[in-house]
Amino acid sequence: MKKGHIIPLEKRKNMGPKKGTHNSPKTEIKECQRLSKKTEFKKGHIPWNKKGSPNKKLLRRRILEKHNPNFSKEFKRLIRKRDNQICMLCLIHREKLNKVLDVHHINYNKFLSIPQNCISLCHSCHPKTNHNRKYWIKFFQSLLSEKYGYQYSNQEIVLVIGGKDCGAA
After folding, report:
1. Residue 121, helix vs strand vs coil
2. Where are the strands (E) in the chain, listed by range?
3. Residues 118, 106 contacting (CB under 8 angstroms)
4. Which of 19, 25, 146, 150 has the fewest CB atoms within 10 Å, i.e. the most exposed one?
5. What is the distance between the alpha carbons of residues 38 and 138, in angstroms, rounded to a whole number?
6. Are 25 and 17 contacting, i.e. CB atoms less than 8 angstroms apart?
7. Rounded CA gap, 169 and 156, in Å?
8. What is the pLDDT of residue 5?
9. pLDDT of the residue at 87
10. Using an 8 Å Cβ cutoff, are 140 and 125 in contact?
11. CA-to-CA distance for 23 and 51, rounded, in angstroms?
12. CA distance readout (Å), 26 to 3, 80, 142, 151
């Protein structure tokens, strides 16, 4: 079974407990149902990891994609292309990594997916930005305003539409 593979709930009920785990299939199913009351996973299609428990990272990603259609694959490609496929922190190119770059939300609001709030980071730089958030917000906003001419005011994004300033939180 592959990582992140989705197994229908009906098939999970018939499977016995996995070797090396203490969870029976019944407890695993109850745990997943608790995680997924308001989402598509209520239908019984839950991603499972190798340990036989729900893949919480994949669940969160699917929930976010469902509730935030602006943060799509096309949008992420646009951000990476704008940044020339380079991590904006360590300046390493995607080709040297052999992986796609992460797209980081500058003000940590995942529902504000606009180019002024997103930046390309590599997999090693992205976790560094989770501490001292105020510093990183100022740092990335000054970087983008210098590089692309975006305008920010008091850690808020200023959108210029038709010559008029419009603030976005």
Report:
1. strand
2. 6-8, 45-47, 102-105, 118-121, 151-153, 156-161, 164-168
3. yes
4. 19
5. 35
6. yes
7. 5
8. 63
9. 96
10. no
11. 10
12. 21, 43, 52, 53
94-113 confidence digits (pLDDT tens)? 999 989 999 999 999 888 89
pLDDT at 4: 59
Question: Measured between alpha carbons, how far is 55 from 46 in angstroms, rounded to an integer?
Answer: 8
Element (H, E) at 9: helix 9-14
Nearby residues of 18 by Cβ (< 8 Å), 6 or more positions away: 51, 52
Predicted TM-score (pTM) above 0.70: no
How many other C-beta atoms can be found within 10 angstroms of the C-beta atom of residue 141?
Answer: 22
Would you call 132 exposed, middle or buried from its count of C-beta atoms within 10 A (0-12, 13-18, 19+)?
exposed
| Residue where the block lists tokens 């976005």 | 168
Q: What is the pLDDT of residue 147?
A: 94
Rounded CA-CA distance 50/28 in Å is 13
The list of the chain residues with pLDDT below 50 reads 24, 26-43
* C-alpha span between 126 and 162 (Å, rounded): 34
Q: Are 46 and 6 in contact (CB under 8 A)?
A: yes
